[in-house]
Every structure is written in structure tokens, then in C-alpha cells.
Write a structure and sequence with these properties.
Helices cover about 35% and strands about 20% of the residues. By secondary structure, it is α+β, with helices and mostly antiparallel strands.
Length: about 240
């Protein structure tokens, strides 16, 4: 049995580490376009879901091109920002900035009856990790048309229920303004919302922390769009 010197062992180990690192880097570079494409498709599926258009991985790009007819970026005053791409905005990074410096994406869906739906992205902190989603409003910039929510690691059967249709559907038809200027968002109430409450939905039984985190996400994200909503509402 050969005896190898320490120098040989260290050199051999170093070379193997370098080779493995290079192979991993090469694999990551080759896979990145596919990963980026998957992220793009998933984002388009979520935006479509918020305007109540069902899609699959195969048809999401086509349906997005058909139904999402416009997108732009606004600032905290509701003013459109020229040259900015709404789809490329990193909401996580924007939320780390002062409100006055944020770029706020807006996606405009045109439905089969030519009705417009205005989509805003959402991001917040759940019980075990980030939560996110999209919400669309009718042209009155007040009435919720649709929502989609998702999470990274909420508890299955409890907080993870935010990603289910039964939780998301009750948001449809709720309103985010109490009157023409008083923004109150949509509340997620433990113990259940009253049937005639236009500003609240039921929280998830056993998932109160995630439910309230989602309520906070809606409030903190949508309030930054308030000037835009007021300036652009249509009866």
C-alpha cells in the first residue's frame, strides 16, 4: 500500500475541489436560462390568476400576451416612470427602500368583455418565511377583482391555506376604501367576518398568525398605491 506525502494529499484535494467547483459553476450557468424561464412563466401564471384567468406552464406566455395588455411603473405620487419595466421590478428590493424611492409595478389586464383589471404585486413576512401574491382591482380602483397568494414555508393545513382557492375567493368584491379617500385595505378577521362587511374576510382557523401577516402585507403594499388609486379611479 502506497504512502502519500501530505503535500501530495493537499495538492490532490485542492485540484479536486477546483474541478468540482468549476463543474458546478458550469452546470449553474447552463441551467440558469431554464431557471429564469421557469420564474418568468410562474410570475405570468400568478398575474393571470389574479385576474381570474387559469393557465398552465404550456399556455401561460400566450395567455399573458393576450390578457395583460399594458404594464408600467409608478412612484409613490402615482406618477408613471418612463423607461422602467414593471415585469423586471424586484419587489423585495423595492420594499427595502424608503417609500418615496420605490418603483411600484402595475399590470393592466383586459378581459374578454373589455373590462380592465389593475394588478399590483404584494410581498410580506409570514410565520416561517416570506409570503407574496398579486391583487387586482376593478376600474373603480376600490373593488377587488381577484387575488392570488403564495408562501415559502407556512404550516401545511394551517397558514399554507393562503394559497388555496377557498381562502382567496372571498376577497373578490371586497373594497379597500371606506369612502372616497379613507384607505382601510381588507381585514382578515379571526372568528369570521360578517356577511355584510365589505372590507373583511375570514381568517384561517388555526392559522391566525399567517392570516394577520397577510392582512399586514395587503395594507403595507397597497397603501403606497393610494395616490395612484385616487387619481385613476373610474366609476
Amino acid at each position: 500500500m502506497k504512502n502519500f506525502s501530505n503535500t501530495y494529499i493537499f495538492t490532490f484535494s485542492f485540484v479536486m475541489v477546483v474541478i468540482v467547483a468549476l463543474l458546478l459553476s458550469l452546470a449553474a450557468m447552463q441551467l440558469k436560462p431554464f431557471q429564469d424561464k421557469n420564474i418568468e412563466v410562474e410570475k405570468k401564471q400568478n398575474i393571470l390568476a389574479s385576474i381570474r384567468i387559469k393557465s398552465t406552464v404550456k399556455d401561460a406566455v400566450e395567455l399573458y400576451s393576450k390578457y395583460v395588455t399594458e404594464s408600467y411603473v409608478i412612484n409613490s405620487k402615482g406618477e408613471k416612470q418612463e423607461g422602467a419595466d414593471a415585469f423586471s421590478v424586484d419587489l423585495k428590493a423595492e420594499l427595502g427602500k424608503p417609500v418615496t424611492e420605490r418603483m411600484l409595478p402595475v399590470f393592466v389586464g383586459t378581459l374578454d368583455d373589455q373590462t380592465k383589471a389593475y394588478v399590483m404585486p404584494l410581498r410580506g413576512k409570514g410565520l416561517w418565511g416570506p409570503i407574496w401574491g398579486y391583487i387586482s382591482l376593478q376600474p373603480d380602483m376600490n373593488t377587488v377583482y381577484g387575488t392570488v397568494f403564495d408562501h415559502q414555508g407556512e404550516t401545511p393545513g394551517l397558514g399554507a391555506e393562503i394559497s388555496t382557492e377557498w381562502f382567496q375567493k372571498p376577497f373578490q368584491g371586497k373594497t379597500i376604501f371606506k369612502d372616497s379617500t379613507e384607505f382601510i385595505s381588507v381585514k382578515v378577521l379571526k372568528g369570521g367576518a360578517k356577511d355584510d362587511d365589505p372590507h373583511a374576510v375570514d381568517a384561517i382557523s388555526g392559522g391566525t398568525i399567517t392570516s394577520k401577516a397577510l392582512e399586514a402585507m395587503l395594507d403595507s403594499c397597497l397603501v403606497t398605491y393610494k395616490p395612484y388609486f385616487i387619481q385613476n379611479r373610474h366609476k
